[in-house]
């Protein structure tokens, strides 16, 4: 299975093509639109979300609510395009009025302008914008539905936000039940503290990031590989999460925490009881030797603060070469809760890709039967 996305932030829409899905996957359209709405929400979101009301439109590959086995095309159209058509149309349009030359530190503006020989950062930022993640959430939710048919479930929550960290270790069920606060945090106390900080940052024209924890339960052992480094499951999942805008670090299980501990405090001992093999800990985060080991997959990702600050960081105006304040239009103060939804979706896509690569299957029935025959 392969997913390709296209589309600009203020263009006509965002598009995804999913190639390689088996036939007869039942699509829950309402769930996809629910996930899109969740992505648009959360504390600290900017004015753009008041314009958009993201909905997934299926343009190919699905008939009567089931996949056909042909490439699935999903579109999320931009309502804001009505306000931008004059500047963004593929045909001749006004490419002067909305120029961006005061490049934003931390954004793709400067490196992208150099790479693509552009004098207007708009030709770079339109695609670099995290608006693209809307369609990744739609495609990822289709993959979530495929995984669910196999008994694999994905959840997540915001563990740290605006410098407030919740150190509690939650079970999968607790996260799945509690996570949908405005901040994406589970603990009401942490959530309240973070919300206060975000309000202060908004008043100061600043932005913030956070840490997102993701879990996948029900994945059997043996996905990924210890034989080919490109197929290592941890390498693939980390690459998928790092591909999301603003993600600057990813860890598996206790991750960086493992570096300072002794081996006996890191590795999860193995026990047997009446023929059943089990562990009492899961510091490895469900992956050993590049393969799933049957335990819960646990990943954490660090999101940096959004680079568009209303107060405008110091930069250079590339049209004059003079010092300037970085470009602003409107900005999210914080998109960490939205990013949590995005990362869950991207994790679903990466897991579905690994599952289909190993098991194949033209139909869901074939895939489910093959998965069922695997050892735990
Ligand atoms: C986004 C929409 C964008 C940004 C944001 C993500 O809307 P606009 O650029 O029209 O305000 O709010 O993009 C960025 C954070 C970025 O750096 O480009 C969305 O729908 O998620």
Describe this structure in words.
- This protein is of the alpha+beta class and 376 residues long.
- Helices cover 32% and strands 21% of the residues.
- The chain is built from 11 helices and 17 strands.
- The strands form 6 sheets. Strands 8-7-9-15-10 form a 5-stranded antiparallel beta sheet.
- A hairpin with a 2-residue loop joins strand 13 and strand 14.
- Helix 1 crosses helix 6 and helix 1 packs antiparallel against helix 10.
- The longest helix has 24 residues.
- The model has no long low-confidence stretch (mean pLDDT 97).
- Bound molecules: ligand EPS.
- Ligand EPS binds next to loops.
CATH class: Alpha Beta
Order of helices and strands: EEHHEEEEHHHHEEHHEHEEEEEEEEHH
Biggest sheet, spatial arrangement of strands: 8-7-9-15-10
Q: Could you give the distance between the termini?
A: 23 Å
Taking pLDDT < 50 over at least 5 consecutive residues as the criterion, the unreliable ranges are none
Give the oligomeric state of the chains in this entry, treating copies of one chain as homo and distinct chains as hetero.
Answer: single chain
Rg is 22 Å
Count of DSSP-assigned helices:
11
Sheet with most strands:
5 strands, antiparallel
Extended strand count: 17
The assigned structural class equals alpha+beta
- Determine the fraction of residues in helical runs and give it as a percent range: 25-40%
* Chain-averaged pLDDT: 97
Backbone shape: globular
**CATH structural architecture:** 4-Layer Sandwich
Strand content: 15-25%
């Amino acid at each position: 299975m392969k997913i390709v996305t296209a589309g600009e932030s203020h263009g006509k829409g965002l598009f995804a093509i999913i190639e390689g899905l088996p036939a007869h996957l039942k699509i829950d359209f309402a769930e996809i639109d629910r996930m899109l709405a969740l992505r648009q929400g959360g504390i600290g979101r900017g004015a753009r979300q008041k314009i958009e009301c993201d909905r997934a439109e299926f343009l190919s590959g699905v008939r009567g609510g089931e996949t056909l086995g042909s490439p699935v095309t999903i579109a999320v159209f931009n309502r804001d395009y009505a306000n931008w058509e004059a500047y963004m149309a593929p045909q001749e349009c006004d490419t002067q009025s909305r120029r961006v030359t005061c490049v934003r530190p931390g954004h793709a503006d400067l490196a992208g302008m150099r790479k693509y020989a552009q004098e207007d950062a708009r030709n770079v930022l339109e695609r670099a914008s995290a608006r693209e993640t809307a369609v990744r959430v739609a495609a990822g939710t289709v993959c979530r539905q495929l995984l669910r048919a196999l008994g694999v479930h994905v959840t997540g929550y915001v563990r740290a936000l605006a410098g407030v960290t919740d150190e509690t270790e939650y079970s999968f069920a607790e996260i799945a039940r509690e996570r949908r606060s405005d901040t994406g945090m589970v603990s009401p106390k942490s959530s309240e503290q973070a919300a206060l900080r975000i309000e202060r940052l908004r008043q100061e024209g600043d932005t913030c990031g956070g840490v997102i924890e993701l879990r996948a339960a029900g994945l059997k052992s043996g996905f990924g590989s210890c034989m080919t480094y490109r197929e290592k499951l941890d390498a693939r999942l980390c690459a998928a999460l790092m591909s999301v805008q603003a993600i600057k670090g990813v860890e598996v299980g206790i991750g960086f925490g493992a570096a300072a501990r002794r081996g006996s405090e890191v590795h999860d001992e193995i026990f047997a009881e009446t023929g059943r093999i089990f562990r009492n800990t899961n510091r490895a985060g469900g992956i050993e030797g590049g393969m799933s080991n049957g335990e819960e997959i646990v990943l954490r990702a660090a999101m940096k603060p959004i680079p568009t600050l209303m107060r405008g960081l110091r930069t250079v105006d590339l049209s004059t070469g003079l010092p300037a304040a970085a470009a602003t239009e409107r900005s999210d103060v914080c998109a960490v809760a939205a990013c949590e939804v995005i990362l869950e979706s991207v994790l679903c896509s990466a897991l579905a890709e690994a599952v289909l690569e190993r098991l194949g299957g033209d139909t869901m029935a074939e895939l489910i039967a093959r998965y069922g025959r695997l050892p735990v």
